[in-house]
Amino acid sequence: MAEEERKLSVEEIRRTIATSLAGAFAFVIALLWTQVVLGGLGAAGISTTSPKDWGAWGIFAVAAAVITVVMVIMIILFSRWGSKK
């Protein structure tokens, strides 16, 4: 029984390490894609700095909301795709 518990413990440690590494790799990817997205917004003429007036702030807020909705939809789609067997 002790041998079985030890194997389970080693499996749990490996799973935790794998999950942590996947998270770390995802963070690096996110940092890279941040620059891609910011560059794309800049090329489209959408400023990503703090707006100086209410009109610019409104455009900034709408752009953030639209991007958020698109990203959530993409997360759902990729999650479904990744969970297919």
Please specify the SSE layout and strand pairing.
Elements: H1 2-43, H2 54-83
Radius of gyration: 21 Å
Number of strands: 0
Total count of helical runs of at least 4 residues: 2
Question: Helicity level, as a percent range?
Answer: over 70%
The biggest sheet amounts to: none
Spell the H/E element sequence: HH
Structure description:
The protein is elongated and about 60 Å long. The protein has two helices and no strands. The longest helix has 42 residues, at 2-43. By secondary structure, the protein is mostly helical. The protein starts with a helix and ends with a helix. The chain has helices at 2-43, 54-83. It folds into two domains: 1-45; 47-85.
Feature tags:
85% helix, elongated, 85 residues
Short description:
This protein is mainly α.
